[in-house]
Amino acid sequence: MGSVLEHNLALQQHGQFSAADLEANRQGQYSPVQLKRFEEARNFMQHSAARYDNKGPVVSLIFGVGFLAFVVVLYFVGVFDILQNVLGGLFLPVMAGAVILAALFILVIVPRQYQASVEMARAMGTPLAASPLGEIQVIESQAEAYTSQGGINRRGHQSTRVSHILQMDGIKFNITASLQEVIQSKRKYRVYAVNDQGAWVLLSMEALE
Question: CB atoms < 10 A from the CB of 143, how many?
Fold first, then answer.
């Protein structure tokens, strides 16, 4: 299994934290490097939100063009002829209802959902001065590191990309592939973490045995 000291050095090399970060976290504090990293991440979210703000009409246009293309395909493959034969006199009312629902989805629902995502990103980009980091949490338990096809993203939601997960006492952290390879499942660790706006962030960690 290797000595604890050697293993902890490997964790630091692959875990994006240093001995200085770990020592500050042991004292319940954030290191200057960690604070800078959080500030840069929030600035990125703020700039990303500003870049995609007020783009609802463009998104509606994209969905509208896609809907029209879908309708054209249905027309050329004869789906409308089949529906007209099946529905008879109800064909026009049913088609009108379908068009109204599609318009409602494209012009109202899609822009609102898109803008809600932008606002969520803007909230996540709140500067540290306005929304300071919470108290550092200490978790001691056996580790479980694995790869997930879905996993969790920065917002704590399911993601379709491949993610590398560290689970400690029921709490999941996104980690790098290299750190996952270093972590030894069932070995006991102490993790220093913070819940930043609903997402758990791993600050540093050390093996206890």
Answer: 19
